[in-house]
Amino acid sequence: MHLAEYLFRRIHELGVRSIFGVPGDYSLNCLDYIAPCGLNWVGNVNELNGGYAADGYARIKGIGVVMTTLGVGELSAINALAGSCAEHVPVIHIVGYPSTAVQEKRLAVHHTLGDGDFGRFAKMSAQISSAVVILKDKSYATKLIDETILECCRSSKPVYIGFPMDLVQAEVDPSPLEYPLGFEEPSPNPIADEGYAVDLILGRIRAAQNPVIIVDSLAGKLQSLNTTRLFVQSSGFPCFITPMAKGIIDESLINFRGLYAGKVSEPTVFEQVQSSDLILEVGPRPTDLNSAGFKTDLPHIETIKFERDRIQMQFYGILGLGMNGVLERLSNVLDKERSGSVSTASTSPHRLSATPDIHRTVSPSSNSPKQSVDGDEFMDFEGNFADKSQPLTQDWIWQRMSSWLEEDDIISADLGTSAFGTLWSRYPRGAVPLVQFLWSSIGYAVGAAVGAAIAAREDEKQSQGAQRRRTICFTGDGSLQMTAQEVSTMVRYKLGIIMFVVCNEGYTIERLVHGMDEEYNDIQPWDYKLLPAVFQAAPNTARTYAVRTRAELNMLLDDPSFGPADHYDDKNPPPLRLVELYMDKYDAPESLHGTVDSILK
């Protein structure tokens, strides 16, 4: 078997069906093996967008792949891959290299600095990758490929595989493919006693009068996602999420109480957390935007932190145990106690049952009264009469969007008003956010939406009869101008993405930080509605809209031909829908104001 075929068959084994990137002369002969191995090549407009697409794909499918050429291609993708590293997203980066003979002779070939150093760029990628390998000969190539892929899955971070042109057709032994790659988690510390840890934690829970759960971003990784969800449901304790944990917990659960980010939280959420006497923190990862400038105001409350490879308990130090086994045991005990099958004489009944959700902020229902715009007034989604010419505002629009979202939606949002607006809105069951809350590279949402939409379409084809998932992109005008070329890929592959562009004359999030009226926070306005025409969208495959008032947005969102996923099928695929939302350039969600104020202070 040729070495390139071996690589792509291993990738196919992971469940990957699409590879993103831009072709380059050092990778062209390798691309020929993609289709025969049951994979699809998704050509992006540039490598940066290809990296974003692979990241978005990985967040839906579990792992993604991007392919570039040496130097000019890989460096264009490195920003996206750094984001994947920061956000713990597993992406395999395959880089086409000149032949091994060219490298050995240190020839001054194109796409290099002309100094014969072919490992220079791999050293750059080593800073953002959990493994870097440049294949040198066929002897150990298959072993190196397997080990690098396994490391990508274990670390949940990018890895780098340099693939020389002359090794593409190198003949290798295919027999390792007979054995699927094993992804066993490292065994827990044999000295530590899992049962002892569970007893300790149960003792602290039973001594508490008001325990709560806070779920953070690392609880959503593949290795811990299911146990985290089981623990939240089985315990019945009031559960809160951080902004980066959005999408991990089903927000329709009776014990889900909202998003916690220190004093930026809704007042009732802040009060509930502050009044607790025990915090069970799952997958903690404190970052500035995730914790409102690290001002969570919790040091006075006893906290047990469940991390992937250890558990931290006040007064007991660090237990060398992975959280999965401990959470699973805790879930079993707490579930039995809640159901009454285990004596709970030493526990308070109100702590081990799901308490009424009295503090919950309920998002407007999709069954709320519809508007009538025949006269000068309309009834908005909250059932209030208002002037139909009322302009869009940030705090109004994100509540309205929350009521419009459907189960299992994929919501890609750029950092800024879009991310802070959507994250603080209530999500329906199964909705998944794609937001770079740590790396915060604006323009990410457009490319990520492409990768996610392709992943969702693959899943639909694999599971016949599965409900169609919508991919929705919220981006600002400044963010879109970073990566607008990727709308071409949406058109090319007929992805049916719904894109909302917040048109507010520039970088609003930067205005709040510094320079409210400075020219450097302004941008040149574009007519975004013309993008599908620029990219030659076929007739009836794209629709564009300009929305300036609440009445106009209500009419659009209530139009059955616009949004509902069940309105479309394979014979009638959804078109690209691009909506301009015109808003005041100084307006921003309250959550963004609060976060910026917390960080600056």
Structure commentary:
The chain is α/β, with parallel strands linked by helices and 601 residues long. The protein is built from 20 helices and 21 strands. The strands form four sheets. A seven-stranded mixed sheet has the order 9-8-7-10-11-12-13, covered by helices on one side. Strands 2-1-3-4-6-5 form a six-stranded parallel sheet, with helices on both faces. α1 (3-13) packs parallel to α7 (141-155) and α9 (225-235) packs parallel to α11. The longest helix is centred in the last third of the chain and has 19 residues, at 444-462. The chain starts with a helix and ends with a helix. The model is unreliable at 341-375 (pLDDT under 50).
- Could you tell me the radius of gyration in angstroms? 25 Å
Strand segment count: 21
Q: Would you tell me the structural class of the helices and strands?
A: alpha/beta
Tell me the major beta sheet: 7 strands, mixed
Contiguous runs where pLDDT drops below 50 for at least 5 residues: 341-375
Shape: globular
What is the CA-CA span between the terminal residues? 61 Å
Instruction: Give the count of helical stretches.
Output: 20
Q: Mean pLDDT, rounded to whole units?
A: 88
In percent, how helical is the residue content?
25-40%
Strand arrangement across the biggest beta sheet:
9-8-7-10-11-12-13
Strand content range: 15-25%
Fold topology:
Layout: H1 3-13, E1 18-21, H2 28-31, E2 40-43, H3 47-61, E3 64-69, H4 72-86, E4 91-97, H5 100-105, H6 120-126, E5 131-134, H7 141-155, E6 159-164, H8 194-207, E7 211-215, H9 225-235, E8 239-241, E9 256-259, H10 267-274, E10 278-282, E11 303-306, E12 311-313, E13 317-319, H11 323-339, E14 377-379, E15 385-387, H12 394-404, E16 410-413, H13 417-423, E17 432-434, H14 444-462, E18 471-476, H15 477-483, H16 487-492, E19 498-503, H17 508-513, H18 531-534, E20 542-547, H19 550-558, E21 576-582, H20 590-600
Parallel strand pairs: 1-2, 1-3, 3-4, 4-6, 5-6, 7-8, 7-10, 8-9, 10-11, 16-17, 16-18, 18-19, 19-21, 20-21
Antiparallel strand pairs: 11-12, 12-13, 14-15
